[in-house]
């Protein structure tokens, strides 16, 4: 893919070289994300950060990533406070906001909406989650995290991952599955209730590429022999009847005791967050908070690097980031 000026809508746009290039740039963003250096490469640029669905880390990390590159952020966070509730079309919103911004990150509850929006936008649009469909920047930060955690320097062929929970509505696992499927010899163990299985078309593309899919509703056997276990929240907001979500909440949980008895030592523990920590759900228990294999907060830190890299590449400034770099005087070692 030629990143320059491209919309980032789906993992299907990426090949292995694109991922390699993105990760190379993400690595270079580290001194800036860690506040050792400061760059003003995007001085004067504006990010339109449009979130028409709840978000904390994705919205803030897109904003931070842009600020760390010297750009400004304008955002809308509440669908009720936006003109969409007055009947405005995605086309009109896109024409207007792309007149105000140089790049847009957008989250919307309807699958395909970000794609539709991007067709009317005059600046690059990054899909920050469209309903149950896709969440490409999350998948990229997840893959980046997996590589770092497993210390894989080159391509990550041969890994085994268990994905657990709501695989039907969880857009992060949809995008991550497509991304991992670029590599060879990957084993996906998909642990979910039968009603919340991974969509058939995704299972099909994985099998067609020669990778392995094991589907089960038995968590204990499914957890065995993986390099990574990726937990997800029951996406209650996607159910027609929210009460139906109660049936599945709390069905698959990982805690210290289950991890110790069923996971291979050092299995990396991941979750896109937010984890549902209510007693009736608790898919990832806080008793694992100090576990060295718990990567969830390294995932969120990596998200800033990946989103910086996406901005740098889509705006074509990858060779200029270091030109305007200055050392940060207020840097404190303690933070990282
Ligand atoms: C996820 C999402 O919005 O799809 N969160 C995130 O972006 N990190 C997962 C979720 O909401 O469960």
How many helices? The count is 12
Which structural class should the secondary elements be placed in?
alpha/beta
Query: What's the structural domain tally?
Result: 2
Q: For the record, what CATH class of the largest domain applies?
A: Alpha Beta
Q: Tell me what the CATH architecture of the largest domain is.
A: 3-Layer(aba) Sandwich
Shape: globular
Strand content is 5-15%
Strand order of the largest sheet: 8-7-6-9-10
- Any ligands, ions or cofactors bound here, and which? N-carbamoyl-L-aspartate
Question: What are the low-pLDDT stretches, counting only 5+ consecutive residues below 50?
Answer: none
Termini gap:
34 Å
Give the tally of β-strands. 11
* CATH T-level topology of the largest domain: Rossmann fold
């Amino acid at each position: 893919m030629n990143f320059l000026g491209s919309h980032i809508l789906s993992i299907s746009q990426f090949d292995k070289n694109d991922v390699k290039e993105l990760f190379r740039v993400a690595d270079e963003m580290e001194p800036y994300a860690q506040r050792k250096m400061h760059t003003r490469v995007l001085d004067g640029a504006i990010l339109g950060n449009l979130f028409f669905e709840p978000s904390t880390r994705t919205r803030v990390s897109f904003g931070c990533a842009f600020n760390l590159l010297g750009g400004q952020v304008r955002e809308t966070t509440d669908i009720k406070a936006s003109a969409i509730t007055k009947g405005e079309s995605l086309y009109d919103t896109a024409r207007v906001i792309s007149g105000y911004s140089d790049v847009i990150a957008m989250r919307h509850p309807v699958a395909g909406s970000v794609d539709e929006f991007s067709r009317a936008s005059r600046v690059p649009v990054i899909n920050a989650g469209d309903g149950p469909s896709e969440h490409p920047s999350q998948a990229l930060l997840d893959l980046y995290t997996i590589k770092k955690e497993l210390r894989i320097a080159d391509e990550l062929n041969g890994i085994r991952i268990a994905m657990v929970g709501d695989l039907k509505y969880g857009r992060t696992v949809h995008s991550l599955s497509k991304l991992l499927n670029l590599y060879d010899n990957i084993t996906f163990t998909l642990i979910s209730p039968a009603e919340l299985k991974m969509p058939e078309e995704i299972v099909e593309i994985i099998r067609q590429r020669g990778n392995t899919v094991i589907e089960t509703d038995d968590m204990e056997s499914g957890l065995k022999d993986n390099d990574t276990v990726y937990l997800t929240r029951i996406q209650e907001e996607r159910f027609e009847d929210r009460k139906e979500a109660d049936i599945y909440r709390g069905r698959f949980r990982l805690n210290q005791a289950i991890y110790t008895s069923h996971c291979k030592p050092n299995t990396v523990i991941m979750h896109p967050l937010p984890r549902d920590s209510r007693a009736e759900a608790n898919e990832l228990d806080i008793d694992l908070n100090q576990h060295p294999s718990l990567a969830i907060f390294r995932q969120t830190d990596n998200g800033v690097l990946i989103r910086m890299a996406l901005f740098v590449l889509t705006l074509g400034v990858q060779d200029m980031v270091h030109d305007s770099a200055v050392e940060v005087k207020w840097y404190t070692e303690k933070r990282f």
